[in-house]
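Usage

Read records sequentially. Each one opens with the input sequence:
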Amino acid sequence: MTRPTPGTVAALLPDDWAVIDLEDDDRLAAVESLVDQQLSGSPELTRLRTAIRHELLTSTERAARAGGVLMALAVGAGGAPAVPASLTVYRVPGSLDARGRAAMTDVLATDEPGHTLDIGEGPAGTVLRRVRPGSASTELTGDHTLPALVADYWVEPAPGVQLVYLVFSSPLVDLRDQLVELFDTVVASVRVLDPSHPGATRATTEEDT
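and closes with the structure output:
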């Protein structure tokens, strides 16, 4: 377990998820280390390692530029295959008070198939959840676009603190209910340590072991 510092976004993740701190100056080294851990030791995997490394560097750079503080990837453990899923966490301005909820639901509400929008209270505070179909295309899929399940969460751990915005994605669209249950569990654990320091955004996770 990593000890969070004041202002940190903290959450419990399954122990087979790898975490990349998007605010860390050593983000490049973290990506290199993750790729080497997952795909080391076989010359046949050189091209795959190169492609995945470039893909991760691109996605983490894009997320960091957009204000992301943390990215997590399901990588599997003990030789077991991973359930492919990812999480990116942001700190964003806003509030989920009555006015903020009304404004956000007006913007996010849609009748499009597969979209759901829910709001409620949980251990992490007020939570707004949107689940929707999405798509993903990467260098690994060439010109093909893959369907994806995307779940967006906006959490207000304490009134007057920046919102925590979490984006989960997985290509396992047929496991929608099971994945949303997992994502809900992670979101329920979100908190901001010492919210009196709302400007601090260094991300840390506590892995669920």
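Summary fields computed downstream for this record:
- Residues 6 and 194 are 5 Å apart (CA to CA).
- The first strand starts at residue 9 and ends at 10.
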